[in-house]
Amino acid sequence: MTERFAAGTRVRTSPTDPTHHTRVPRYTRGATGTIVESQGLHPLPDDRSRGLPCEPLPVYTVRFAARDLFDEGDHAVTVDIWQTHLTPVDDEGATPHER
Amino acid sequence: MNDVGGMQGFGAVEQEPDEPPFHSDWEAHVFAMNRALIGQGVYNLDEFRDAIERMAPQHYLESSYYEKWLHAVSTLLVEKGVVTAAEVSAGEHSHD
Lengths: 99, 96
Description:
The complex is a heterodimer of chains A (99) and B (96).
Chain A: E1 10-13, E2 32-43, H1 45-48, E3 56-65, H2 66-70, E4 76-82, E5 86-88
Antiparallel strand pairs in A: 1-2, 1-5, 2-3, 3-4
Chain B: H1 25-39, H2 45-53, H3 57-62, H4 65-79, H5 85-93
Helix pairs in contact in B: 1-4, 2-4
């Protein structure tokens, strides 16, 4: 899989709640943020933790407004998230298929 | 349990002015063992994190940081066939 997102792209994290391991923090699930930069390619923990084949996949630093995650705070929160768990959204926060 | 980022309801975080890296020797042993086992490829870091998250919720919430590590190391060593559950149990009871 190749890198899909440039810096500044608005993305939403998947509202995943798997029975297996994931590195998507619960407080970011379903939230909308902005791509800051690429962190290169890394095996997906969701698969690697289960002994499944795991080709290195793109990872990005994503910036969220604290207010979007916790309903308060004027600071930003940055989290490294795999591309697998990110969907691009337009400026209104809708994913393309919701338009 | 997957509580990356934490959650509310467990009281204030205890702050220690000169917090040592380890509070007991066994914690340092667990730390070293885990580094060695991952380094040798017995299991990987994601399997280690998963083993902690697979703990029964009540056990997870009652355990300290390195107690969770010890649980994960023991679990993975049994699952990978390095030791048997009976051997782990015998080791635990040798200090009774």
